[in-house]
Amino acid sequence: MKIADAEAYICHFPLTDPFYPSWIPGLPLQNNSCIMLRLVTDEGIEGACAGMAFTQEWKGVPDLIKLFLIGRDPFQVEDFIKVLRGAKVIGFRPWFIEVAFWDIIGKAAGQPVYRLLGGSRDRVKAYASTGELRDPETRAQDALRLVEEGFTGIKLRIRNEDPRVDLAVVEAVRVAVGDDVEIMVDANQAWLIHGFAAYPRWDLKRAMYMAKELEELGVVWLEEPLRMNDYDGLSILRRSTSVAISGGELNDDLDDFREFLTRGCYDILQPDVTFAGGILTCRKIAGMAEAANVAYNPHTWTNGLGLAANLQLMGAIPNCTHCEFPYDPPGWVPEGRDAMLAQPIAIDGEGYVPVPSGPGLGVEVDWEKVRAHGEKIS
User: Fold this and answer.
1) By residue range, what is the domain housing residue 23?
2) Does residue 359 belong to any structural domain of this protein?
3) pTM of this prediction?
4) Distance between CA atoms of 179 and 354, rounded to whole angstroms?
5) 276-305 pLDDT, tens per residue?
6) Rounded distance, CA 313 to CA 308, Å?
7) N or C: fewer beta carbons within 10 Å in the chain?
């Protein structure tokens, strides 16, 4: 089997309401933007993947990547990973393309990817991952609605200039939902997007102060409290608190995660398969984490196809405890998040996300919607 053709589209799927992500302060999003790639083999099997986009930054890249795609055996994933590592040298991180190989492999085998890679579970406990900064009363009301919808865990963004405001939000949610609902918090300090509005910069002392306060509120984990390569600071922080420390969503490839594990930086690793080496590399990272008694709960805040790809990995590994379910109405809802899919991904009646069970990534891409909201660039 060989890859015979490839198409790429820059898509801007409109959101029903503007979304104000805490990690890009001052820049409301009107669209769910991504690059969609469709690979077709000489046997007629198609594979799909999606990467994050903002405007037109991916123009020209698919034509370059196409030189390395056409004629390639999609089963030779390890060989293609070498191509993607080479792309990093010239400034690109197109790891998401590897996901399309697995979509093809699964369809050729007639199995979902998670069964080919280990088949550990067919559903994962979900937590509603919110993305905006809101005042304590509003966020408490949001949390109650999420619990009514079936979620047993909620992640809050704590990215205010004044840490007391962050703590007030967490406390208000804890009072509203009680002790049976899990609360996670995300400081989004690993990578900082500059240029639109002010944002807080945490140092080790602030992270240690916040961790101590969050212990009293029964928080499950504190995410991205320090820079993405602050190995020493993360190690000190982790040893100082009973709150689990998590991160690694934008670190990529094996070397970074070897350092995290060797230095004892994290209780939970969170590399996203579309950011951090693809499904095969992240399967290896999950094995490294398992050996170190560290959990692997990937970041999924990209789009529906990215969520589906990460779910396939979650279903394959034994050390995944939670699935991030990006959801923050009214701006970020499954209909906008999963706009490229024929059906949005949803939780079941017990607050779990079923791992998509169809062949490959297990989901169906609606290419008519992709073409309606996308510009073909290759």
Assistant:
1) 3-110+364-376
2) no
3) 0.96
4) 25
5) 999 999 999 999 999 999 999 999 999 999
6) 9
7) N
